[in-house]
Amino acid sequence: xxxxxxxxxxxxxxxxxxxxxxxxxxxxxxxxxxxxxxxxxxxxxxxxxxxxxxxxxxxxxxxxxxxxxxxxxxxxxxxxxxxxxxxxxxxxxxxxxxxxxxxxxxxxxxxxxxxxxxxxxxxxxxxxxxxxxxxxxxxxxxxxxxxxxxxxxxxxxxxx
Length: 160
Known about the structure:
With 160 residues, the chain is mainly beta. The chain has 1 helix and 13 strands, in the order E-E-E-E-E-E-E-E-E-E-H-E-E-E.
């Protein structure tokens, strides 16, 4: 039986060391996605996932690497989790190119949600280029589960 449920996911990313925001820029139609999130190599980041209504996050992977999902809030109306990842060993993105940063979120019931951010990696400490543009507050995803297929479909993605 295929049960369909709708919910929203809000994802935010901050530099772990100082909690400062990351930035993004609008690239238009030059690349696969319209917006590019700017990240530094050899830097640790915290990613937060919030769900309304409540969803139970059982695990996560960033770029194929398992990361811990720490529950921050869980009640009858919403839930929130944090994970940490680092960009150690990622080379800076060459000029005129973009990379994809893949997230896989595992939810209760074996449901899988895939998200990909278009990113540009800058050298560690290159704040001249990395720390300007529009502040990346979060991305809101309008989702629906398809339990028969074991997936979460992303219907809409909105940068805030």
